[in-house]
Amino acid sequence: MADLLRSGAGMSASALVTKLRPGITRLGDALADLMRPEPKAQIDRFAATLAAMGAPADVAARLVRIEALDGAVGVGLLAADLGIDEAAVAGAYTDLGAATGLDWAKGAAAALTPTDPWERLLQAGLVRDFESLRLDLLRRLVPIGGDARVAAQGWVASHADAIARLAMAVRRARVGGVLSTVMLAHLAAQARQVLAG
To answer: Is-contact 158 126, C-beta < 8 A?
Structure first.
């Protein structure tokens, strides 16, 4: 979302939509190729939940597509700002998510259903953080016209020890039982330290 504010500052809503529409359309067309196993499993669980709730098929299909395109605005804006292909930015974004475990963490945060209003605010912030941390890192790493995937892979290779520690913390949270906003907030704090480097 920070990318949206930076990229869209001073831009009318219609100008922003005009800027984003082609890239988001291309991302939507390439979803099957871009989606990694973790986010795909989350989307499949969401579709199953909608079906179990008796949602009409056409409504469920639209909601699943919206959920699958979560993050497309940030990816599209970053790609437009850098003058590079959206699929390359999406690939780099998911490479970072797979290496660090943040794909799972974002999905886990989104799946929580806290009843306390303060926890709901924390949950929304966590979902946003697990996305924006990766987009902000890519904005710092990738030069205009550069190769996003090569930049992300180089960063992962040069930060292997820190990423391994973060990924281990994510694995412990994943198998540790009941998830909570507090646990995920701790992971977000660790991720901030790693991705700031």
So the answer is: no
The rounded average pLDDT for each run of 10 residues, N- to C-terminus, in the chain (197 residues) is 52 82 82 78 87 91 84 88 93 94 91 92 94 96 96 97 96 89 95 90
DSSP state of 142: P
Helix axes 181-195, 117-141, angle to 10 degrees: 20
Q: In angstroms, what CA-CA distances link 138 with 24, 89, 147? A: 18, 8, 10
Q: What is the pTM of this model?
A: 0.81
13 SS3 class = helix
Structure tokens at 190: 């660790």
CA distance 63 to 46: 9
